[in-house]
Design brief:
The chain is an alpha+beta fold and 211 residues long. Strand 8, helix 3 and strand 9 form a beta-alpha-beta unit. Helix 1 runs parallel beside helix 4 and helix 2 runs parallel beside helix 3. It starts with a strand and ends in a 22-residue tail after the last helix.
Amino acid sequence: MSQGNETAGRRAARSRRTKETAIEVVLDVDGTGEATIATGIPFFDHMVSQLGRHGGFDLTVTATGDLEVDTHHTVEDVGITLGAALAEALGDRAGIRRFASIALPLDEALVEVALDVSGRPYLAFAIEFAPDTPPLGTPGFDPQLTEEFWRAFVTAAGITLHVRLAAGRNTHHIVEACFKAVARALRDAVRVDGVGVPSTKGTLTGAPAPA
């Protein structure tokens, strides 16, 4: 397994290689919402694109993985690598707003998100998909992988994230509302509108992001 990184301003490039996947992520937090995503899982590409578009990030993600086995490894490893890139790009997190929340609708679906760019990874994911819910797209994206993606992402990024379904029936709408809601909350939380680290401890960085 290997990992490389480089940063400039609020930008970062991260890579992750294992026997199961090879992931490359380039992130500019202060971008224009341009996203180019290619993971071999079209529905997942569409979801990750929402993070760039609605988060206001310039984001490039390329991934190859053992899709003949399952989509799980690729989804999880993209989450890890993207979270690590965000942590790297934010640096000491000085001046950021830190907290944000939103209730985001998508047709009949309504997803509530609250997050804290705290340096402490924690996921509370209050959305349940039935085990027999059909996968989305081809190769299939199992809706239950939504939770696995966010767990990997927040662990690497050092973010506390709460996601709750207030209403919804259509699986596609629910999953997409999750990604859009997190993107909009992140856009608000990482905005610089002050000076210094917004913590009485003087730091918002935790353990190093995983390789």
